[in-house]
Amino acid sequence: SAVISQKPSRDICQRGTSLTIQCQVDSQVTMMFWYRQQPGQSLTLIATANQGSEATYESGFVIDKFPISRPNLTFSTLTVSNMSPEDSSIYLCSVSDGLIGNQPQHFGDGTRLSIL
Amino acid sequence: GEDVEQSLFLSVREGDSSVINCTYTDSSSTYLYWYKQEPGAGLQLLTYIFSNMDMKQDQRLTVLLNKKDKHLSLRIADTQTGDSAIYFCAVTDSWGKLQFGAGTQVVVTP
Fold first, then answer.
1. Which value, in Å, is the radius of gyration of the alpha carbons in chain B?
2. pLDDT (tens digit, 0 to 9) for every residue of chain A, 116 residues total?
3. CA distance linking residue B74 with residue B63, whole number of Å
4. Which of A20, B56, B62, B99 could form a disulfide with A79 if both were Cys (CB 3.0 to 4.6 A apart)?
5. Which of B5, B47, B98, B104 to substitute to test the interface with A, most A CBs within 10 Å?
6. Cα–Cα distance between B21 and B63 in angstroms, integer?
7. Chain A CA closest to residue B48
């Protein structure tokens, strides 16, 4: 299965600032996803990152707050903009194996974000 | 939308078997997954089952799927202290997206 690297692994940020999280995969994948896991909660899908087109956002998430880039088949970024303490969460990147759709999803180790 | 439900907590003695249960509502789910999350770590894909299967065994792990009842279970044989973690059930919804349960905290006691 694909090996997924996320950077940074954790950060502490001031409110009002923005942070960009990187997700690098060791093989080409069609589907990349960004999730949020709030403290003590399950995972919520933020958006699906599509190569060569705009990301597809889930209800409750907007591009201005969570801009996403997907410049190629092995890399994506998620920016958390104008952060507030409510954005303190783990942000996880996942990929669906290979270039064929509907394959099992694998996750990176996540970025633990705390906003003061 | 898809609802995925799990019990929140399970305590098990070391060496015993653990059974974690999950129910879901979307009968069109294609893949059904079990993920493990250890403290401070991301999600590790433990195992998954395709919807046309009833059972899948992988070493100490056995997944059972009852499509009629929309019930998925994960059995861990000979549970070890390293199995202490949160276990998430996840299913694909009709759009192919993953829907997660709330997670079951498994605590293994000596």
1. 13
2. 789 999 999 999 999 999 999 999 999 988 899 999 999 899 999 999 988 888 999 999 999 999 999 999 999 999 999 999 999 999 999 998 766 656 788 898 999 999 99
3. 5
4. A20
5. B98
6. 10
7. A104
Alpha-carbon span B69 to B53, nearest angstrom: 14
Q: Å from A112 to nearest chain B CA?
A: 9
Query: Which residues does chain B have within 8 Å of residue A109's beta carbon, measured at their own beta carbons?
Result: 41-42
What are the tens digits of pLDDT across the range A65-76? 999 999 999 999
Q: Tens digit of pLDDT for each residue in B79-102?
A: 999 999 999 999 987 777 889 999
SS3 readout for A68-116: EEEEECCEEEEEECCCCHHHCEEEEEEEECCCCCCCCEEECCCEEEEEC
CA dist B7 and B23 (Å) reads: 10
